[in-house]
Amino acid sequence: DAVAESQLLEGLNDAQREAVLAGSGPLLIVAGPGSGKTRVVTTRIAHLVTQRGIAPWEILAITFTNKAAKEMRERVDRLIPPPEAEQGRGGGSWIGTFHSMCARILRREIDVLEGYTRDFSIHDTGDRNNLIKTIVKDLGFDPKQFRAPQIGSWISARKNRRGRDDGFELSDGSMEEDVFLAVEKKYRERMRQQNALDFDDLLLKVLEIFDHHHGVRDAYARRFRQVLVDEYQDTNRVQYRLVKHFASFHGNLTVCGDPDQSIYAWRGADIRNILDFEEDYPGAQTVRLEQNYRSTGRILEAANAVISNNTARKDKDLFTDGEQGERVVVIECGDENDEAREIAAQIRSHVARGGNYGDCAVLYRAGFLQRAIEAALRYDAVPYQVVAGLEFYQRKEIKDLVALLRLALNPADDVAFVRVVNTPARGVGDTSLARLAHFAQERGLSMANALGEADALNEIRGRAKKGLAEFAGALEELALARELDAAVALDVVLESLDVDRWLAEMDDGSGTADRAANVEEFRAFASDYDERSPEGKLRGFLEEVALVSDTDAYEGDEDRVKLMTLHACKGLEFRFVAIAGVEDELLPHERAVDEAADPDVAIEEERRLFYVGITRAKERLLVTYTTYRSFFGGGRPVLPSRYLRELPEAEIEGVGPEEREEEALGAFDPAKGAGAGLEVGAIVMHPHFGRGKIEQLTGAGINARATVDFVREGRKQLLLQYASLERL
Length: 728
Ligand code: ATP
Ligand code: MG
Fold this sequence. Notes:
The protein is an alpha/beta fold and about 725 residues long. The radius of gyration is 28 Å and the shape is globular.
């Protein structure tokens, strides 16, 4: 039975109702964090289905992560009880990420592009980098000088900026760029030969089809009578154009977003997509939501104070009817272990006061901060979960199985071939493999196909020859799995593999039980997939596996602390949030600022990231930083983040940077080696100004000066002769 209108709208405020009930045409919802944007989108979908006679499959809803999509499907299910068979699928509506929607479309439509079939493989970043490394070597360049990840990101950036009209140009005519271009060209060829797409291609190929095959485009545009996009501020130009195509027939497009939460510029996201919406879609209705339902007054104050330092923004007022709540706690820690212990202690105290572990999240800017935090949580027996679905799929045993499954579907997938040809060991060394690759390349064949050629193995000797013949046999067996259900296909793969030997070879002394259990778990995923999507088969399963993004393993209902990066926490909320490592080099992230065309723009983007983190907290917020941190190259003194100075004093408690500076000054001994080892970037102590970082050194002798950015006093220029700076 359809849910009554009044029931749907219950509890929504006027602006939210307006957005849910808005008539046809373009609709923009701009609003700050926690104001109910996502809730409005979900309710609107339910409203369209139950009150406006739109069938679920006529709706396309795009979210940023698979997890958000899953949650949205579940919420829509609850609002519109679907027939049994459709449970868990959002009543048949198309709800997913750009990548999953595009993969789904390509499975049906990619035939119109020359050279591709619907059995295409999806390559992840690791696969991409492996292929690039091979290409760099093949072309005779030094893979140490031309690093695959670097070239990979360069290629990706170029792809994602296609279609921008801001005159973006990467070309500076340098020799390095010639190499990159040569690699890119070869990469494109090799991907096509392999019938493979990387993540960027998923979107670009759909765009290519929509741009050039209007019949196909129109079929989708007519089908989707309503298109809704959450987190629109993080769409890039390619996604923007896709959305335009999707909405090109009915023009019913709802987007929502918050320019202050735009944190993906480094991946090509373009904030103009949201700022220009009213111009791009004439007649657009705009709804602003101003009430925050998530956070306490103090957390909201802190968030507003921080973000108000960004110049490139429209001011907006976010208020809450909720309680003022507790102050934001800022704690200075000695080093990362100290910090991790502090966080663990605060989480335990949250639980002691009646909270749950599942209410808590620890957020950080860079992945390497995770290790110390995990260690402290384990030590304190605090249950936690790292929110990174990728982890599971990065394990060697799982990657091997995925590669074998990919070969079953698409034998042309050379990257997968190379990965497993010698798994378990068949005596196929690098030289033999290089010979085979060369043979295949010369004839324009995939390596698997080359194996079928009579004279392919002529130049290959001994064990390798036998090993390759053996693998050719295994490939034939694998081909049987092509049209099977995922779990059955996996069984075929496992049968083709000498599982015991394979596991034993990976044994690094800790036994094979863990890996065997992972294989079991993967088998369970596959059966679960078959049950959920009976028509998906191996193809669909591989697609899902390829698209697990880093927020996916996250299960909201488990009573465990969640650990994740600031980028991964978008859209989520927790009663207790700890943000670790709020330090000078980490937030803003030094490399992000250094590599940006305009450092000021990067500093604002990093501030938005801090803002996103702060606004995840419902009741309690803890911010920590250290004075000394270990990095890959060793440890060194560090300073608190500039953003900490922006937190309003009235809203914070605990030991903020200011008070700590006073203490540090008390301990300062000016007699100790002043002036030694001063260089740009060094952290120094000054008898009056406290700690700071040297930004610039000029002049010599009695004229030598240093520009120092002090934690407490800001930037100052000092004559070294008198300054008695001590390097820390
Ligand atoms: P973000 O920008 O962080 O993605 P958002 O604008 O999407 O935030 P939601 O996640 O939709 O915000 O909502 C934040 C919280 O407020 C949720 O717990 C939601 O259920 C709650 N909420 C939203 N609207 C209302 C309302 N009218 N009454 C009570 N609670 C509400
Ligand atoms: Mg949201």
